[in-house]
């Protein structure tokens, strides 16, 4: 766990979206290349920034394809755009615009989503987006950051603004109780063991730590799953019998192809834990969806235990 700075201390009791809006607004004051494009979501959080920079904070209304298209146009004009709205509208609804207005044009920007896989469960399936990271895997070169805590957001956003890469930042109301530091987007080891390497992505970390308590496993954390730290995984997996578990807060198996590529020259075992592919067709709460998908500590514990001890699981 990293030692927080005063700003990060102030973010212990806030949301990732609030942390993002505050840092983006501050960056607008200092970076004339930066522009923020909104689609009626979070406009209240950018009210002061819009007043101070009316030509670089643009609200296009509930037109998500236009949101991404406008951001792509700003990138072509030499600006560094941040486009922001709910994940299913930003990524799934406007994927063609991401593909054409950024990827095909050879430009880049920062796409920042909220809602994640099922944050607003009351909003039902139209507001769910567990497939977003899988979609970005079809496009080359995009960095994907998945903070586990609001205090991780400012430095991740700073890095994204300084970069020339396309960056997708996936914000969530699901979070760990405390921030954790990852160096250069790599895997950070929080617990060492011999029987498996368990990789936790973003806000599922503390569920993983609770679930694996008492298990002889290595637990590693990342808030930057793309590019995936394949070198770090190879090193860790070598000490745990090339047995790997990946717990990710989006579609189950999204990172399986990267683990397989990293360990292609070595026999290995892999368990993927994430949001199930079957639609639950229920409203409920985010906590209930987490439990039903087996991403709560109890669900993760049972699946890891059965994976590590298949003889016991078959009884």
UniProtKB/TrEMBL annotation:
Pfam families per the UniProt record, alphabetical: Transket_pyr, Transketolase_C
Q: Which Gene3D superfamilies match?
A: 3.40.50.920, 3.40.50.970
> Matching InterPro entries, A to Z?
PDH/Transketolase (IPR051157), THDP-binding (IPR029061), Transketo_C/PFOR_II (IPR009014), Transketolase-like_Pyr-bd (IPR005475), Transketolase_C (IPR033248)
Lineage: superkingdom: Bacteria
What's the protein called, per UniProt?
Transketolase C-terminal domain-containing protein
Domain Transketolase-like pyrimidine-binding: residue ranges = 14-175
Q: Entry's SUPFAM superfamilies?
A: Thiamin diphosphate-binding fold (THDP-binding), TK C-terminal domain-like
């Amino acid at each position: 766990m990293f030692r927080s700075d005063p700003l990060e201390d102030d973010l212990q009791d806030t949301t990732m979206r609030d942390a993002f809006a505050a840092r983006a607004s501050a960056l607008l004051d200092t970076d004339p290349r930066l522009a923020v494009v909104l689609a009626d979501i979070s406009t209240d959080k950018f009210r002061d920034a819009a007043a101070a920079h009316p030509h670089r904070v643009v609200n296009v209304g509930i037109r998500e394809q236009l949101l991404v298209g406008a951001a792509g146009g700003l990138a072509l004009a030499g600006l560094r755009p941040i486009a922001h709205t709910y994940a299913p509208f930003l990524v799934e609804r406007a994927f063609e615009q991401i593909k054409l207005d950024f990827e095909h044009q050879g430009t880049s920007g920062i796409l920042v989503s909220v809602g994640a896989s099922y944050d607003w469960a009351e909003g039902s399936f139209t507001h769910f987006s567990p497939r977003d990271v899988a979609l970005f895997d079809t496009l080359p070169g995009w960095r994907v950051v998945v903070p586990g805590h609001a205090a991780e957001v400012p430095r991740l956003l700073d890095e994204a603004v300084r970069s020339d890469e396309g960056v997708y930042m996936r914000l969530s109301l699901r979070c760990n109780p405390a921030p954790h530091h990852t160096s250069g987007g790599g895997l950070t080891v929080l617990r060492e063991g011999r029987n498996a390497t368990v990789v936790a992505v973003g806000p599922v970390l503390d569920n993983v730590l609770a679930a694996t308590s008492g298990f002889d496993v290595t637990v590693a954390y990342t808030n930057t799953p793309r590019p995936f730290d394949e070198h770090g995984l190879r090193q860790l997996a070598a000490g745990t019998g090339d047995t790997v578990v990946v717990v990710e807060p989006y579609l189950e198996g999204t990172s399986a192809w990267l683990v397989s590529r990293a360990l292609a020259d070595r026999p290995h075992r892999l368990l993927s834990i994430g949001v199930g592919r079957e639609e639950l067709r229920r409203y409920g709460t985010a906590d209930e969806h987490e439990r039903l998908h087996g991403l709560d500590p109890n669900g993760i514990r049972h699946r890891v235990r059965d994976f590590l001890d298949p003889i016991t699981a078959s009884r």
